[in-house]
Design a protein that fits this description.
mainly alpha; ARM-type_fold; 534 residues; 0% strand; RAP1GDS1; Leucine-rich Repeat Variant; Rap1 GTPase-GDP dissociation stimulator 1; guanyl-nucleotide exchange factor activity; Methyltransferase, Methionine Synthase (B12-binding Domains), Chain A, domain 1; mitochondrion; 35 helices
């Protein structure tokens, strides 16, 4: 009995045929089971009513029980029935998250994984399993169940047998969502997937066929995804001596943009702990990344620029790497991208420079006196459409002052109109940014108050500080640094007058009993200063 015509599906449901059909699934006759499975699969195909009726009649659980009990039988007739039942479950749950979740709760995943392992010689049944895995793997709730099976081993074993592009692509479509799970990443690495991916890259790198280019991209992208897991990444790094790490390094000087991209992203992923970063910098990776960036300055590939800058940013995090990277000329290479109009590149450029100058006074002063850089930062501080770029520009502006403590840097920032942005940054929703702004502003007030006075006044700094101190939600360090800044502003006649007019004494005196000792002590000192100067 077939119901392949979509106009017949709802009448079949309305006529009450589904419950009797589901009852036929309890038959001992294999042919009856086969035809019933086909009929129910057709009724469920693209039909909400059909699926709902099968669900209410308990059809899915009966089919899963059949798959479980028939799983180990390898004769052709049984494999045909298993294929039909898998197809029926796919039609039943396709593009329906709640029904897919129901199948997962019924234990369909371990059953299908076992099925794949036993029947991997059967192309039709294998294909059905792969499509089912692809659908189920999109659900986050499936990952834990997949991780508790030997799915990684089975997929890698199957992958190694495939020579056709289409078949490998089908397996890739299952691997990609599964590899988002860290436990499965490690299982795939241990099952030997990386070696398969490296082999594909080697085979396809010089091909100009569309399918080969697509497969190279898929393989290298998946390789990068596997490196996002901490355990899988560390296993492949092997102290910087592993075959996989060395092969990935060879991608960076390649002429293939996809491999350059994957190589740079892989380095960025390897550079997620200090030990790896230090080893890589000591072994010349910085020079390789700088060479790569130099090849992409004029009309370069934006994704490669972004990836290489990401890698440099991560490598610059350990303190011992900063001076080495500065002396290698990283800032000069990075500054070549200052003219970029691409927000992702701007964002990584800013982050890399900020990491490099952390506690590096000389480098911070050198960059802070670079008028072109400071003007570009001030411009990007207004990039309201790109919050990340705007935030990083503000943070770098503040960092230049905090790490250089230089009057020349402060003058350059004042002349470029940067003061108002630092004042606005003090009102950020992020405490770390507020704090960075207040420390930078305190240095400005201590070192170059006369130069910055008018800009601080027009940016309404005093009113903002009053608000921060009066707001109970302000973090202790924000209150503390706001009071330090108030004291520093007293050297300006006009700002001093603003402080007096806003009756800061009332707000500050309340903070003497603050639960944070540093805040309470600073409140006493500030109160004394305000009283003396009133």
């Amino acid at each position: 009995m077939y119901f392949s015509n979509k106009f017949m599906r709802i009448p079949c449901v309305d006529a009450g045929l589904i419950s009797p059909l589901v009852q036929l699934l309890n038959s001992k006759d294999q042919e009856v089971l086969l035809q019933t499975g086909r009929a129910l699969g057709n009724i469920c195909y693209d039909s909400h009513e059909g699926r709902s009726a099968v669900d209410q009649a308990g059809g899915a659980q009966i089919v899963i029980d059949h798959l479980r009990s028939l799983c180990s039988i390898t004769d052709p007739a049984n494999e045909k029935l298993l294929t039909v039942f898998c197809g029926m479950l796919m039609n039943y749950s396709n593009e329906n998250d709640s029904l897919q979740a129901q199948l997962i709760n019924m234990g369909v995943i371990p059953t299908l994984v076992k099925l794949l392992g036993i029947h991997c010689h059967n192309a039709a049944l294998t294909e059905m399993c792969l499509v089912a895995f692809g659908n189920l793997a999109e659900l986050e709730s499936s990952k834990e169940q997949f991780a508790s099976t030997n799915i990684a081993e089975e997929l890698v074993k199957l992958f190694k047998k495939q020579i056709e592009h289409d078949k490998r692509e089908m397996i890739f479509e299952v691997l990609a969502p599964l590899a988002e799970n860290d436990a499965i990443k490690l299982q795939l690495v241990e099952a030997g997937l990386v070696e398969c991916l490296l082999e594909i890259v080697q085979q396809k790198v010089d091909s100009d066929k569309e399918d080969d280019i697509a497969e190279l991209k898929t393989a290298s992208d998946l390789m990068v995804l596997l490196l996002l897991g901490d355990e899988s990444m560390q296993k492949l790094f092997e102290g910087g001596k592993g075959n996989v790490f060395q092969r990935v390094l060879s991608w960076i000087p390649s002429n293939n943009h996809q491999l350059q991209l994957a190589g740079a992203l892989a380095i960025a992923n390897f550079a997620r702990n200090d030990g790896n970063c230090i080893h890589m910098v000591d072994n010349g990776i910085v020079e390789k990344l700088m060479d790569l960036l130099d090849r992409h300055v004029e009309d370069g590939n934006v994704t490669v620029q972004h990836a290489a800058l990401s890698a440099l940013r991560n490598l610059a995090i350990p303190v011992v790497n900063k001076a080495k990277m500065l002396s290698a000329g990283v800032t000069e290479t990075v500054l070549k991208f200052l003219k970029s109009e691409m927000p992702p590149v701007q964002f990584k450029l800013l982050g890399t420079l900020r990491m490099l100058i952390d506690a590096q006074a000389e480098a911070a002063e050198q960059l802070g006196r670079n008028v072109k850089l400071v003007e570009r930062l001030v411009e990007w501080c207004e990039a309201k459409d790109h919050a990340g770029v705007m935030g990083e520009s503000n943070r770098l502006l503040s960092a230049l002052i905090r790490h250089s403590k230089s009057k020349d840097v402060i003058k350059a920032i004042v002349q470029s109109g940067g003061i108002k942005h630092l004042v606005t940054m003090a009102t950020s929703e992020h405490v770390i940014m507020q704090n960075e702004a207040l420390v930078a502003l305190a240095l400005i007030a201590a070192l170059e108050l006369g130069t910055a006075e008018k800009d601080l006044e027009s940016a309404k700094l005093v009113q903002i500080l009053h608000r921060l101190l009066a707001d109970e939600r302000s973090a202790p360090e924000i209150k503390y640094n706001s009071m330090v800044l108030i004291c520093a502003l007293m050297g300006s006649e006009s700002l001093h007058k603003e402080v007096q007019d806003l009756s800061f004494l009332d707000v500050v005196s309340k903070l003497r009993s603050h639960e944070n000792k540093s805040v309470a002590q600073q409140a006493s000192l500030t109160e004394q200063r305000l009283t003396v100067e009133s």
